[in-house]
Specification:
Blueprint lengths: L7 E4 L1 H14 L5 E8 L3 E10 L27 H13 L3 E10 L7 H5 L6 E8 L2 E10 L6 E3 L2 E3 L1
Parallel strand pairs: 1-3, 1-8, 4-5
Antiparallel strand pairs: 2-3, 2-4, 5-6, 6-7
Length: about 160
């Protein structure tokens, strides 16, 4: 299975706009969501975007060691219940969870070290830069098999 530059992510214009809207609505906090679709040979096709609530502030559900500088402004957390709901919905439709998205308020659309340490290989990770409440650059990434670095994944908008 190909990853990185050989792999690409197909996203419908309406889903791109939905992610952008979610990022603008949650600004100055990070938004988070799940991408559902199908994987073909050299690409993943997103069929549905599931915006979810950033669960970072639900301390009892937060598995990360949070420092005083960590908040929903620079961190996002996926509630396992939301993951299970999305997985159930995907299976009903004979699809899979193919990735996740989150925003970077007032930061570039590049993965952080925190993103790398907490990502899983195979999935697509879409990052949306939101500057002063305005959606800007959107990028996609796949974590290398050795979990050492993110590889860029081209996005094609349909």
């Amino acid at each position: 299975m190909a990853f990185g530059p050989e792999m690409r992510l197909e996203l419908q214009q309406k889903d791109k706009e939905r992610i952008e809207r979610h990022g603008a609505e949650t600004y100055p906090h990070e938004c988070i969501g799940i991408l559902i679709g199908r994987q073909q040979d050299d690409h993943r096709t997103v069929m549905e975007v599931f915006p979810i609530e950033n669960a970072w502030n639900q301390v009892e559900a937060n598995p990360y060691e949070a420092g005083p500088e960590d908040s929903t402004r620079n961190r996002s957390l996926l509630d396992p219940k939301d993951y299970l709901r999305a997985e159930h919905e995907a299976r009903k439709r004979r699809m899979d969870i193919v990735g996740f998205y989150h925003s970077h308020p007032d930061h570039p659309a590049r993965p952080s070290e925190f993103d790398r340490r907490n990502a899983w290989p195979w999935f697509s990770y879409v990052i949306l830069a939101v500057e002063n409440g305005v959606p800007r650059e959107m990028t996609a990434w796949v974590l290398s098999e050795d979990r050492d670095r993110f590889l860029p994944e081209p996005i094609s908008i349909k």
